[in-house]
Amino acid sequence: RVSRLIGVVPALLSLVLGSALGVLAGYRGGLTDAIIMRLADVTLAFPSMLLAMVIMYSLGGGIVDVFLTLTLVNWANVARVVRAQTLQL
Questions:
Q1: What is the per-residue pLDDT across 2-45, written as a single tens digit (0 to 9) for each?
Q2: 69-73, long-range: CB within 8 Å, 24+ apart, which pairs?
């Protein structure tokens, strides 16, 4: 059960965070779009496993920290796709 929880919860959190930031960036545009997309670019510039290890080292242990780490590593992909679809609409 814990393995499923670690797989599902961060995926849903990444979906929610990435969708919200992607829609905000695509709809507002300008400086808001630039800041959110540069933050996504910085997140995507690092290898995901290395970034996850650095975040986990900073936060410590625990299942909530695993959720937060996996969410922070994966939100940028969702945000870029949602932003592109928002701009298309």
A1: 889 989 999 999 999 999 999 999 999 899 999 999 999 999 99
A2: 69/10, 70/6, 70/10, 70/11, 70/14, 71/10, 71/13, 71/14, 71/17, 72/43, 73/43, 73/48
The helix/strand/coil state of 61 is: coil
Specify the pLDDT at position 54. Answer: 92
Instruction: For the chain, give the number of residues.
Output: 89
pTM as predicted: 0.86
* 32 to 9, 22, 86: CA distances (angstroms): 27, 10, 14
Note the pLDDT of residue 80: 96
One-letter amino acid of 80: R
H-helix segments, 1-89:
2-28, 30-45, 48-59, 63-88
